[in-house]
Amino acid sequence: MDKQVKIQIQNFNFFYNDKQVIFDLNLDIYANEIMAVFGPANSGITTLLRSLNRLSDLNPAAKVQGKILLNGKNIFDTDVNLTDLRRKVGMVFEVPTPLPLSIFDNVAFGPRLNGLNSKSKITTIVEESLRMAALWEEVKDRLDLPAFSLSGGQQQRLCIARVIALNPEVVMLDRACSGLDPISTAKIEESLRDLTDRFTIIIAPHNVKQAARASDTTAFILMGELIEVKKTNDLFNYPQDQRTYDYITGRFG
Questions:
Q1: Which of 66, 115, 117, 120 pairs with 167 at a CA distance of 20 to 30 A?
Q2: Is pTM beyond 0.85 here?
Q3: With contact defined as beta carbons under 8 Å apart, do 221 and 227 qualify?
Q4: What value, to the nearest 5°, has the Cα angle with vertex 97 and ends 128 and 9?
Q5: How far is 49 from 63, CA to CA, in rounded Å?
């Protein structure tokens, strides 16, 4: 059975004022897969991720050309509701960003903001989200403690749970494991694999090895240009472009 395309990026160009940082990029992202998008610093990867839910709009110098289709609908159409888009396409950032609230209230924050008042439903959502983020067993007896009492790795998984609680369609992680120890990183990668049953996941991995371990498909971007995209095993074992080979073997980057 053919895989469903969740996001289609078509002839996408991105500028900060007159400086172009993404060049005529075309990329299909398939539903219920993990897509890794990687490349050296200053390749436009964070900009690309922030464009997928239009967080890039927050920068007044930003200008885009081309289309990004979510479920066939161009996210740049004038009738797109940005709040709804950012609920559907959630983002977990490089540095954990828990709210100055309890563990429970961090996860409940989004559903409450969306008007959910039922205590029992919120409690269910909090538990399910924490379970999916592989954090429930570690915090279930201290949900009323401040989120900042958690370790860095736990805080990052809490941020994943907070995104999941909004029932998104796509979860993006921008180098979300870069500051974490190997054990915390492994727990997050494990939970991501389980989450593909419900979500499409896009990661900007913090290193080449994470892309190889954690993704189904990998796209290599260099200086804003898509160089190569393949199933992850094929890209690492049979890269077609010399630049891809040089990057994954550590010759630059």
A1: 66
A2: yes
A3: yes
A4: 80
A5: 15
Contact 12, 64 (CB under 8 A): yes
CATH architecture of 5-248: 3-Layer(aba) Sandwich (3.40)
Q: Could you tell me the two tokens for 41?
A: 């610093």
Assess contact for 144 and 128: CB atoms under 8 A: no
Cα–Cα distance for residue pair 201/169, rounded to 1 Å: 9
DSSP 3-state of 68: strand
* Two tokens, residue 108: 């409940």
Model pLDDT for residues 67-98, shown as the tens digit of each residue: 999 999 999 999 999 999 999 999 999 889 99
Write the pLDDT tens digit of every residue in 93-122. 988 999 999 999 999 999 999 899 999 999
Taking CA atoms, 59 is separated from 14, 48, 112, 201, in Å, by 12, 13, 28, 25
Structure tokens at 220: 């290599």
Q: Which structure tokens are listed for 69?
A: 């289709």
Residue from 187, 216, 186 nearest 201 by CA: 216
Domain ranges of the chain: 5-248
